[in-house]
Write a structure and sequence with these properties.
Elements (H helix, E strand, L loop, with lengths): L1 E3 L2 H11 L3 E6 L5 H13 L2 E6 L19 H10 L4 E3 L3 H4 L18 H4 L3 H16 L3 E5 L3 H13 L5 E5 L19 H6 L2 H14 L5 H13 L4 E9 L13 E10 L2 E10 L3
Parallel strand pairs: 1-4, 2-3, 2-5, 3-4, 5-6
Antiparallel strand pairs: 7-8, 8-9
Helix pairs in contact: 6-7, 9-10
Bound molecules: pantoate.
């Protein structure tokens, strides 16, 4: 496994090795969810590349950039064990050199949900991912369904800007009690960690209601809010039952729905989602 810092080195190795490439973009502090993306990329491409870059432009002024957890040595050993060929760990100046002034703005799908709470977040994500696509020129790029809105935004960007690659979305990995794996789970105290599976319980309750015939979007949002209200440590930011492509809140959820939520527990802001689709 080669670990490099410069764009020039990534391009050189890409040319030298040839073949098809799968890219797994990450901000490091890897968990089993990231490893599952690498494994899928390994199975579908000749070579696998990963990036580890805590992207400053996707953090708001009051967010946890400096405190974001980092463990490069552990990340590299996980990536190597999972069969990664190339890892890019650029310093900030390699990605955003002095004088940088070009950003990618995806419009409508960045406005609700995470975008409403974090207004500059998706501009930062779309910009850095566009750069990663240009630097690596992968055949496929792998993202987790955990960040459901990010996936919608990046698919829109790839379509609108004609990036010649496939975006592959991998299922959410969960702890035994249902908590979705996330680097931010590390912020939870033991008491908060015990409360955190309430997000998945709320999503499952709405899924059960949907399967039992509750197809009113507001009814589904109410089911999720009711479950969250029973956990005193949970402070919901939003609860959503939206169209999976446009992210517009649904009245009629009969044909399928993306259930999602952001909930603060202690210092952590946790997100989770469940995609319900009517059998064709
Ligand atoms: O999902 C993430 O970890 C980040 O948003 C990404 C895609 C690596 C861009 O910084």
């Amino acid at each position: 496994m080669q670990v490099v810092q410069s764009v020039a080195d990534v391009r050189r190795i890409h040319l030298e090795l040839g073949g098809s490439w799968g890219l797994v973009p990450t901000m490091g502090y890897l968990h089993a969810g990231h490893v599952s993306l690498v494994e899928r990329a390994r199975a579908e491409n000749d070579h696998v590349a990963a990036s580890i870059f805590v992207n400053p432009t996707q953090f708001g002024p009051n967010e946890d950039l400096a405190a974001y957890p980092r463990d490069l040595a552990r990340d590299l050993s996980l990536l190597e064990a999972a069969g990664t060929d190339l890892v890019w760990t650029p310093p900030v100046e390699e990605v955003y050199p002095a004088g940088f002034q070009t950003y990618v703005t995806v419009e409508e799908v960045t406005k609700p949900l995470e975008g409403a709470a974090r207004p500059t977040h998706f501009r930062g994500v779309a910009t850095v991912v566009a750069k990663l696509f240009n630097v690596f020129q992968p055949d496929r790029a792998y993202f987790g369904q955990k960040d459901a809105q990010q996936v919608v935004v990046l698919r829109q960007m790839a379509r609108d800007l004609d990036f010649p690659l496939e975006i592959v979305v991998c299922p959410i990995r969960r702890e035994a009690d249902g908590l979705a794996l996330s680097s931010r789970n590390t912020y939870l105290t033991p008491e908060q960690r015990a409360a955190a599976p309430v997000l998945f319980r709320a999503l499952c309750a709405a899924q059960e209601a949907w399967l039992a015939g509750e197809h009113d979007g507001e009814g589904l949002r109410r089911v999720m809010r009711d479950v969250l209200a029973r956990e005193p440590l949970a402070r919901p930011d939003y609860v959503s039952a939206a169209n999976p492509q446009t992210l517009v809140e649904l009245g009629d959820a009969r044909r399928g729905v993306l259930l999602s939520m952001a909930v603060r527990i202690g210092k952590a802001r946790l997100i989770d989602n469940l995609l319900l689709a009517q059998e064709a």
